[in-house]
Amino acid sequence: MRRLIQGGRVIDPAAGIDRIADLAIADGRIVGLDMADFQPDERIDARGLSVIPGLVDLAARLREPGQEHKATVASECRAAAAGGITTVCAMPDTVPPIDSPADVRLVRQKGRNAHAARVAVIGALTQGLDGHHLTEMAALRDAGCVAVSNALHPLASPLILRRALEYAASLDLIVVVQPLERALMPEGCAHEGPVASRLGLPGIPVAAETAALGQILALVEQTGARVHFGRLSSAAGVRALQRAIADGLPVSGDVAAHQLFLTEMDVADFNALCHVLPPLRNSRDLEALRAGVADGTLCAICSDHQPHEDDAKLMPFPATEPGISSLETLLPLCLRLVDEGQLTLPEAIARVTCRPARALGLRAGSLAAGAAADVCVFDADAEWTLDVEQLHSRGRNTPFQGWALRGRVRHTLVRGEPVYQSSADSDPHA
Amino acid sequence: MNALPAPHRPGPLPTRMQLEDGRLRHLLTIEGLGRPLIEQILDNAESFAGMNDQGVKKLPLLRGKTVANLFFEASTRTRTTFELAAKRLSADVLSLNMNASATTKGETLLDTLRNLEAMQCDMFVVRHADSGAAHFIARHVAPHISVLNAGDGRHAHPTQALLDVFTIRRHKGELSKLRVAIVGDVLHSRVARSQIHALNTLATGEVRVIGPRTLLPAAVEQLGVQVYHNMEQGLKDVDVIIMLRLQKERMQGAFIPSEHEYFQRYGLDARRLALAHPEAIVMHPGPANRGVEIASEVADGPHSVILRQVTYGLSVRMAVMSMVMGVNPQVRA
């Protein structure tokens, strides 16, 4: 099938392109821009719309295998597509965890069967995420894992971490680490600060992040392993990463989109929808995270999507499960950073396309000729109000209910094939 | 592009959930109650105390009402005083030990509430190990049910704080002239948080907290207190000393090195009591660990009002129960 996406504002930060153009696609690949003699089988009218590489999301929970009551690979891949995401990195902390080649193949196959966003699997770093025994990382890589991670599960000791980094490095596998020292946050469920103190919520100090970062960075320096720090939450964390990058260590980092908009104050009415890990911190941290995104210290903005069934949040705050359903707010929140003057539009697009792809070595996030035709076409001016009932994700757990957002996905293509489309007329949010 | 409207923010703060048309609908926390309302509760408690003093032990104010004590966490003293207060007001009382009930069999908290609602209860008195549990329940109960927080996690224990300020008012009078010191494990104490809010709302002259940094919450000064790590300095010239219970399980958490050192640094004995105002009173929400946070000579001494607190607690809880049900001691049914 040959398709032509016509007349849109093509923004491809990887190639430095930002202009009105026609994007030609054939056999699932990008052919090029403004190809005069290209004869399409189908035309997509993108006048007044933006045409960008499909979004690459570095962290999402797809809940399969084992937690299908929360979501399925298929449901969340469709939600991702509705959010303009064409590659979604599945975290390994499913039940049971994704720690064997069979698990990896199963999740990838379910992803393919969904005919929506692609699934890039991040495999477990230790068996059963037990923190003690390394997984067969070579087999995981051969089965298609793009990286390994222990997600939020702690490692038994710094020695295990060292061995894990060394072994992963010998396979050229990137290790994704969510730096949070569990020993410093017994029962912790909210940022250790005035709000948690007032509400009597057990705190999670910033040091839980920085202590973990410090230890990991010391071992990165020792081992030379390639580490991506996922979901930083604090000003001190950004500073530590900035220094490490300046020192030439092979590290990168990302932030969850919600950390750029919410703070501990949003927890102030025991709002369980704002129960996340790492916790929402204070406004100074939020500003530092935004600055870190702007200066590139944080190369990527991810969804950190964690869909839950309603009951998971219908308990007193500390007993609720952390996480936000966030695939479909990733792009609008990034656009809001543009509206608020934090980033230019191409910079914002880069943080959810080429930069995350580069961080994990994924062949995605580009509209260069020959690249897979993973494309998002969106209306940057469409204003809508988030209504959880309209989400495609099974998870309705978002604190952004009722927020006025800008930017609606009109078409999502994976390998050149439409996996999601909506028109302004049919869009329930429009 | 036009600026987008301001982001949606969460609904009313929990402090506002408990008021309806200015009337007390639930009692979840002291925060946000306002001085007139707290003083009204204390005044009503005075009326009940007066009646109790005159030998009128039972009033028909809550006749026909059903109060359910839902204790998801063990407690004898608090549960008993709530139960007795409800009975003194002629309510029917259910006291349920929720640890041994359906929630341990997998039923959700909301399912449990729905079942209790179906039993036509009018008031839930809730104790729970999680901060925010009382708010959660208040947010989800049927409109005719009032929720009283009998202690949630580390968050709040409002009736205990009210009986404490009632005690202070009775024994020391005008709070604006007083220095009050709260000593010990503020970090884990729901009582201390509620006391601080109550004392500050009533414009107490000075509220101090005294304890090692391991037992004080982060940014505790933002609650409106002066912070002391030295007991001798903190007790100087105070009019009221509120000792907090040091939970023995804290010993395992490396919060303090030993009971011995804790008592040496923060225990209240006669020598330290002498640093306070000569007519200072000593309070304790109970149960007290003698020799750990307080010496027997002080707990049983002339400055102690510990047992009076227990008595006043009954009047305060009667006042709160009658107010959330829309009746007060002046209105006889």
Structure description:
The complex is a heterodimer of chains A (430) and B (333). With 430 residues, chain A is α/β, with parallel strands linked by helices. Chain A has 2 domains: 2-51 and 372-421, Urease, subunit C, domain 1 (Roll), CATH 2.30.40.10; 54-181 and 207-364, Metal-dependent hydrolases (TIM Barrel, Alpha-Beta Barrel). The model of chain A has no long low-confidence stretch (mean pLDDT 96). Chain A has helices at 73-82, 101-114, 137-142, 158-170, 194-199, 206-223, 235-246, 283-294, 330-339, 345-351, 354-360, and strands at 2-12, 17-26, 29-33, 42-45, 50-53, 55-60, 85-90, 118-124, 147-149, 174-177, 190-191, 203-204, 227-229, 251-256, 300-302, 375-385, 404-414, 417-421. In chain A, α1 (73-82) crosses α2 (101-114) and α7 (235-246) packs parallel to α8. In chain A, β9 (147-149), α4 (158-170) and β10 form a beta-alpha-beta unit. Chain B has 333 residues and is of the alpha/beta class. Chain B has 2 domains: 19-156 and 312-325, Aspartate/ornithine carbamoyltransferase (Rossmann fold, 3-Layer(aba) Sandwich), CATH 3.40.50; 158-305, Aspartate/ornithine carbamoyltransferase (Rossmann fold, 3-Layer(aba) Sandwich), CATH 3.40.50.1370. In chain B, a hairpin with a 2-residue loop joins β1 (19-20) and β2 (23-24). In chain B, 49% of the residues are buried.
